[in-house]
Amino acid sequence: MSDRRYFLKSTLQSGLAWSTAVGLAPSLQASPLAQQKAALHVPSIGPDQTPLPYTYDALAPIIDARTMEIHYSKHAAAYSKNLKEAMATEKLSADSSVEMLLATISRYSEKMRNNSGGHYNHELFWKCMSPKGPQEPTGQLLEAIVRDFGSMADFRKRFTEAAMTRFGSGWAWLCLDAGGRLQIGSTPNQDNPLMDISPLRGKPLLALDVWEHAYYLQYQNRRAEYIENWFKLVDWTFVGQRMRTDS
Ligand code: MN3
Hints:
Layout: H1 3-23, H2 26-29, H3 33-40, H4 65-89, H5 98-103, H6 110-127, H7 139-149, H8 152-165, E1 170-176, E2 182-188, E3 203-209, H9 216-219, H10 223-230, H11 236-244
Antiparallel strand pairs: 1-2, 1-3
Manganese (III) ion binds at residues 71, 75, 122, 209, 211, 213-214.
């Protein structure tokens, strides 16, 4: 199969799987995690933190070790802990899929909303970065970026705008919508594009944390400089894999 045909087929399948997840048949909502995953072809993360895929100092000098340590072991750890508390209080099984929870978050408390989003967003954020050195998107991902934004330079400009204009705390996103097209946007606080209350919907491919705790020790109020440098850390191989598969 040609690259282009594979790309169209896989993005369509991926879009369909995620639109199904977003629509969530009621019979699936209470079913065990394994059954949900099999039915929706959506791998899931649980409420526990997974190990950081590199050491605290691996992203220096772009993100310093102290920022990474506090961010992972204090801020992100608290979201995981508070998510588990909310799940216990609101009678959700500890092996529930966080993605499924996000897709029906309007039914739950503010605490569940903030902490399920906080946990999911950080789990994705760590994986979107790599100490391997500056990369550029290639193959099907680059083709989709050019198709939907014009060029890589235009993509960077729009993504930076989304991150810069998010007032206060929040996230910038590249996501794949249900129609298989790439979208750029931002969400406030710990909201994300999987949440049924979010105006921006889709499968998150790339996440950028623009809370001050992500950069303040090193960059203080210079969010633009943080964003510009952060692009050198993006693991485009990982982002491309998320677009082509349901991972
Ligand atoms: Mn953060």
